[in-house]
Design a protein that fits this description.
6 helices, 45% helix, alpha+beta, 4-stranded mixed β-sheet, Glutaredoxin, two-stranded antiparallel sheet, single chain
Length: 148
């Protein structure tokens, strides 16, 4: 009986502490301010709720246990829904979603999903279109990491 109870407790504890870490995604306004404050590049995931490839990129790549810490350590992750009808802070100006995407992407977004690596005050932008597997994302993260 004691042995069974011990096995149950140990199993419960192991399951409790092996929970995979999740990536904290920010809204544009939160992420923009945080990136400026922490002087980190933003990783902006441009997506839509109806986009199958966006869901796959989110589920298979951005939720990958090797990718999560790489993004969390070196980037401010922002999800940007192209369908959202909001006003966004850009500098001291409030702009629409389309105007914001145009400004931060140098008009180079061709579709979704798109991942944009953007440095707030430097205005450097590197959009990468399409679905990327975890290995491809590792390479992109390494190539777009800013040296502090």
């Amino acid at each position: 009986m004691k042995r069974t109870l011990f096995v149950i407790v140990v199993t419960f504890l192991m399951c409790s502490f092996t929970h995979a870490e999740e990536l904290k995604w920010y809204s544009w306004n939160e992420g923009y301010e945080l990136a400026r404050k922490e002087k980190k590049p933003m990783l902006i995931f441009v997506q839509a709720s109806w986009c199958h490839q966006c869901k796959r990129l989110n589920d298979k790549t951005f939720n990958n246990e090797e990718i999560i810490p790489l993004i969390a350590q070196d980037f401010i992750p922002v999800k940007f829904d192209i369908e959202a009808e909001e006003e966004y802070l850009f500098g001291d100006t409030k702009v629409s979603g389309l105007d914001l995407l145009t400004a931060i992407s140098s008009e180079s977004i061709m579709g979704i999903p798109t991942t944009i690596f953007w440095i707030a005050d430097a205005k450097k932008v590197k959009p990468v279109a399409g679905l990327k597997d975890p290995d491809e994302m590792k390479e992109l993260l390494a190539a777009n990491r800013e040296k502090q």
